[in-house]
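Sample intake sheet
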Amino acid sequence: MSIQEICAEVEALPVDERRRLAALLVSLRHKDLVDYRAQMARKIDDDSPENWVTLEEMDRRLTT
């Protein structure tokens, strides 16, 4: 299957399925990043409220 065929198939998917595919591609990209897990662990362990993101801000970031 060519990349053009894949692109055509992706364009035909419903929005929810495209979002799932986008999430999969991002997760695959992160697996390729050597320091990704360490970066995420530092962010998760950060207990400084000034570095936190509200749920509303997270929702805004994910929907734009």
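Comment: DSSP finds four helices and no strands in the chain. Residues 15-32 form the longest helix (18 residues).
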